[in-house]
UniProtKB/TrEMBL annotation:
This is t-SNARE coiled-coil homology domain-containing protein. Keywords: Coiled coil, Membrane, Protein transport, Transmembrane, Transmembrane helix, Transport. Residues 126-193 form the T-SNARE coiled-coil homology domain. One of its GO terms (biological process) is macroautophagy. It is a single-pass type IV membrane protein.
Length: 226
């Protein structure tokens, strides 16, 4: 979408709408042929305004969603204001006689076509807004679904990590149990070794005492007993 093109069409429509308002005001102060001429000019300008609104809607179809939503509302208001202006014009045109209108059948047909076209354009603007709302809702649902999938993945990762931590804790507990068993066996071995050491010391003491006694007996027999 070209923002310059949209702004250009927007300015053209605003200028044309101001001209239509001016013509409508002049019709209320005119009579006879001048009034009929102003009505024809109004219908021609009204048709041009509708064409500009159609071009604005075509430009909005390729606009970004954020810009399209606000401008669609504005175009819908333009359709409504244009319809009000046309109805006001028809109300102001009651001064024309039935015979004059019969002589200007092309005007009546053209005015009716313009009114139907205005209603169709208003409905089209509503459809565009509904489509924008649906697109926004779809995008919101898509984002929510993506967030839900990401949350589910995060939850799965957390569960897997907790499972791994549980396995690590189980292995640590098993190692602690084995370590406790090893410590118990080590204490038993140390107690056994301690008893053996005491026994060996006792035996060694007895042997030393016996050797000293034997040595004393030998010395006594050799040197003192003759």
């Amino acid at each position: 979408m070209s923002s310059e093109e949209f702004e250009k069409l927007h300015e053209m429509y605003r200028s044309l709408y101001d001209e239509l308002k001016m013509i409508s005001d002049r019709v209320t102060r005119s009579q006879g042929e001048e009034k009929k001429k102003l009505v024809r000019v109004f219908d021609e300008r009204h048709g041009e305004a509708q064409e500009l609104l159609q071009e604005l809607e075509q430009e909005l179809l390729s606009a970004p969603p954020s810009f399209r939503s606000s401008m669609s509302s504005k175009v819908r208001l333009y359709h409504r204001d244009l319809g009000k202006l046309q109805r006001h014009m028809h109300t102001s045109d009651t001064g024309l006689s039935l015979s004059s209108r019969a002589g200007d059948g092309g005007y009546s047909i053209y005015a009716a076509q313009n009114e139907r076209s205005t209603e169709q354009q208003a409905q089209r603007a509503l459809l565009i807004q509904g489509s924008d709302s649906l697109n926004n809702a779809t995008q919101s649902i898509t984002r929510s679904h993506r967030i839900a999938v990401e949350s589910e993945q995060i939850g799965t990762d957390i569960i897997e990590e907790l499972g791994q931590q549980r396995e690590q804790l189980d292995r640590t507990r098993d190692r602690l149990v084995h370590t406790g068993e090893n410590l118990s066996r080590s204490r038993k071995i140390l107690r056994t070794m301690s008893r053996k050491v005491m026994t060996n010391k006792l035996l060694l003491g007895i042997i030393i005492v016996m050797e000293v006694a034997i040595l004393g007996a030998v010395v006594y027999l050799k040197f003192f007993r003759r």
